Backbone:
């Protein structure tokens, strides 16, 4: 079952599933949106609300797995996680929201006892960075610190932006000494060489790997960076002292409406041709380090492929009960199962550059 199938990512994922010969049940709240999508793809559908727990369990009991695509996940994950455990179905989603990873981890024992897997973050958030982090850790087994960064092409969808907006009042985060620590927005910066021809200034963000990489690698100190235009960084730092105001229901609802109208997501050409570069560094207490570089597809295109690959493996019996991350179950080469992904060494002949620019 794909719940949230009519959202931007949900549609891409449903289309990818059909391309690979799968026949998921499409699900969501709005039957008027589900029916035409199901007819176009030749699939069954069912409409139900996340507020009706008994109905959720009844619908999910007929399936082995739910791929949850209805964000913002900080609002929607808890009822779906609970329903999947009660129904005896595994749960996979495409979030990058730290509170959702914490929720799933808190339900680890219940899920393990039911024999089902809980895997938030099987899309771009956090699959490629999770794999790169584990690969760096394998190169330096005594690493105590993991630093991650990514840069790519393409714009956000409204759903992604809404999820980010709901996390904004929490500010920035880093992991130090095994604990998540709150910081001002984009408080830390670092110039990162993603390749021989691409070196950019990046800024710290509260990405999901701050939680997942600690589970996948055991590292106690984790920082995640991404590139951002100077004006965006300046604006983020300016509003940081006032970010709690954004949690007000009226202002939050108004901003969400604006985002829905202004952010249609990347177009088909960008999704097909765009790339993302990922960098990971493992460092031990003696100062020795190991770096990993990865090139993969545009984020939404990657998410459609990686989420369905995670589903295929889980339905094929390649899963572990309880809360898991992609790399902890399938290793650092899981990302290589996605077409267009490869690890590379900086300076090699076909070193990627993102010549069309970064966003």
Residues:
């Amino acid at each position: 079952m794909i719940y949230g199938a009519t959202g931007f990512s949900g549609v891409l994922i449903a289309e990818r599933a059909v391309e690979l010969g799968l026949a998921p049940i499409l699900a969501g709240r709005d039957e008027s949106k589900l029916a035409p999508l199901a007819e176009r793809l030749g699939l069954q559908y069912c409409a139900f609300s996340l507020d009706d727990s008994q109905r959720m369990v009844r619908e999910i009991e007929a399936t082995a797995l739910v791929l949850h695509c209805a964000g913002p996940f900080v609002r929607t994950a808890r009822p779906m996680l609970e329903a999947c455990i009660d129904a005896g179905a595994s749960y996979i989603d495409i979030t990058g929201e730290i509170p959702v990873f914490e929720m799933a981890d808190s339900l680890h024992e219940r899920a393990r006892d039911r024999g089902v897997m809980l895997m938030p973050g099987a899309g771009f958030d956090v699959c490629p960075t999770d794999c790169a982090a584990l690969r760096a850790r394998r190169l330096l087994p005594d690493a105590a610190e993991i630093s991650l960064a990514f840069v790519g092409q393409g714009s956000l969808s409204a759903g992604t932006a809404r999820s980010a907006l709901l996390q904004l009042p929490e500010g920035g985060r880093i992991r130090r000494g095994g604990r998540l620590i709150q910081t001002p927005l984009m408080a830390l910066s670092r110039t990162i060489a993603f390749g021989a021809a691409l070196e950019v200034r990046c800024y710290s963000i509260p990405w999901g790997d701050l939680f997942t990489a600690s589970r996948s690698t055991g590292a106690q100190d984790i920082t995640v960076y991404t590139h951002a235009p100077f004006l965006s960084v300046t604006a983020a730092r300016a509003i940081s002292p006032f970010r709690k105001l954004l949690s007000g229901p009226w202002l939050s609802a108004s901003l969400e409406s604006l985002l829905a109208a202004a952010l249609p997501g990347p177009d088909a050409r960008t999704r097909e041709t765009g790339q993302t570069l990922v960098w990971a560094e493992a460092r031990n207490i003696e100062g020795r380090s190991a770096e990993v570089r990865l090139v993969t597809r545009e984020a939404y295109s990657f998410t459609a492929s990686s989420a369905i690959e995670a589903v295929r493996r889980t339905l094929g019996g390649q899963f572990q009960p309880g809360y898991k991350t992609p790399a902890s179950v399938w290793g650092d080469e899981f990302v290589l199962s996605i077409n267009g992904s490869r690890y590379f060494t900086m300076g090699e002949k076909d070193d990627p550059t993102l010549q069309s620019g970064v966003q």
Summary: The radius of gyration is 20 Å.
